[in-house]
């Protein structure tokens, strides 16, 4: 698994990456997400998207540069 990186270094070109974020209950989550419309968005289920404030990121599964 790739090492987490500061969110400031994440690509903002619409690429899908894995982002790490904390929900309102303080639970840390990892979700596939992308930067668009001025923020980071994740799918909470197959139909619902949520804007989140991530703390870090790593390449999405299968995109690991370390292989």
Walk me through what this model shows.
- With about 70 residues, this protein is an all-beta fold.
- The protein has one domain (about 10-60).
- About 0% of the residues lie in helices and about 45% in strands.
- It is built from no helices and six strands.
- The chain has strands at about 5, 15-20, 30-35, 40-45, 50, 55-60.
- The protein has a six-stranded antiparallel beta sheet, with no helix packed on it.
- A hairpin with a 5-residue loop joins β4 and β5.
- The radius of gyration is 11 Å and the shape is globular.
- The N and C termini lie close together (about 10 Å).
- The mean pLDDT is about 90.
Topology:
Blueprint: E1 5-6, E2 17-22, E3 28-36, E4 39-43, E5 49-52, E6 56-59
Antiparallel strand pairs: 1-6, 2-3, 2-6, 3-4, 4-5
Q: Structural class, please?
A: mainly beta
How big a fraction of the residues is strand? 35-45%
The secondary-structure element order is EEEEEE
Overall tally of domains: 1
Q: Main β-sheet: number of strands, strand sense, barrel status? A: 6 strands, antiparallel
Distance between the termini: 10 Å
Indicate the overall shape: globular
SS summary, helix count: 0
Chain-averaged pLDDT: 90
Helix content: under 10%
Unreliable spans are none
Strand tally, please? 6
Strand order of the largest sheet: 1-6-2-3-4-5
Radius of gyration: 11 Å
Short synopsis of the structure:
The chain has strands at about 5, 15-20, 30-35, 40-45, 50, 55-60. The chain is an all-beta fold.
Features:
67 residues, six-stranded antiparallel beta sheet, 6 strands, 0% helix, globular
């Amino acid at each position: 698994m790739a090492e987490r990186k500061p969110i400031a270094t994440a690509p903002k070109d619409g690429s899908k990456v894995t982002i790490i974020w904390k929900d309102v209950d303080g639970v840390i989550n990892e979700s596939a997400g992308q930067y668009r419309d001025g923020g980071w968005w994740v799918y909470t289920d197959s139909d619902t998207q949520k804007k989140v404030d991530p703390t870090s990121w790593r390449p999405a599964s299968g995109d690991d540069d370390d292989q």
